[in-house]
Amino acid sequence: MVDLNKYPRQDGIVDHQIYGDEFFSTEAPSIIFEKKPVVDGSGNAVEGLYSAWITLNNPRQYNSYTTQMVKGVIAGMHKASMDRSVVAIVFTAAGDTAFCTGGNTVEYAEYYSGRTTEYGSYIDLFNGMVDSILLAKKPVICRVNGMRVAGGQEIGMACDLAIASDMAIFGQAGPRHGSAPVGGSTDFLPEFLTAEQAMWSCISCEMWSAYKMERVGLISKAVPVLKVNGKFVRNPQVVTDKYVEDGQIVYGEFASGDAAAAAKKIIKEGELDLSPLDKEVNKVIYTLTNLFPNCLMVSVDGIRQKKKFFWDTNKNMNRHWLASNMQNEAYLGFNAFNSKKERGTSTIDFIKYRQLQVEAKPFDQEFVDAVMEPPKK
Questions:
Q1: Which fold has domain 14-225+273-325?
Q2: What is the reported pTM?
Q3: pLDDT at residue 8, as a whole number
Q4: 50: which strand partners?
């Protein structure tokens, strides 16, 4: 007979945790890990059952993740996975402005740029973060409280479901700032969209509204969170009437001209209240609670496997490219973004860059100085 006393246990149950609480903090930048009771349709707490909330806590920098925060996400996903009382994981962020805008560009520019080996090690951690979402033993819900851009879009798409504030925007930024969306978008988007929609989203750096994301099937639901005169209204910056104009679908596109100006005025007069978003997330969690847990996870993993196939195929190759790219285009892109206040722009001079390439100029300090626009006077 096996002597269970030989194995580390807590309250008579074997402990499968690897990580402690040293990866979590409420002091930004950090990851906050907390458990919240599952609530039923009447708002009553269900005894002994919880959702685990993993919160990106760096609101001053649009919840961009630092190296330590990446470690915290990995630890949080494992901690929630091994907790028997957790029904589902909610992956979200602090505040009402941003879910995540990707990696921390200050850290990228001031430490990783030019250090290929160091950045390669960082990408190993990033890949581990995406893996931790795709391998979580509980369904992962992305609670999109604001903009989900660049790496934020990628880790968001690794999640199983997404419920978004209708004020959120979505998209990529890599080709504009010295990188490429190979942290998941080039793998995941073709699974969700047509080939050309996926291509345009990856290369254009165009921002899409939450309603457009809902229309094309990239999120489950967009929830109104703007309260004006005590009532919730849909995001006035986005056309939410379902019709076609001049052969083009208008629903979910951003308003322009006078309509856009009027929308900004409405937003200024209103206030953001994310309680409807939380209510919708809680509805999803309660639905998941009323399912056989093992049957649920087999179903979840079966869907995830399609995303994992392409992610696993490309992640190691992309890791090496991302590392080497820190010596040239990423070096330029992240340093340009990090010095935007002094220079008056967040990008390099792309025309000059291409002109120098035509002349086969070497990538040296003279090249760098030429494509960086002069400081703002």
A1: 2-enoyl-CoA Hydratase; Chain A, domain 1 (3.90.226)
A2: 0.93
A3: 62
A4: 37, 86
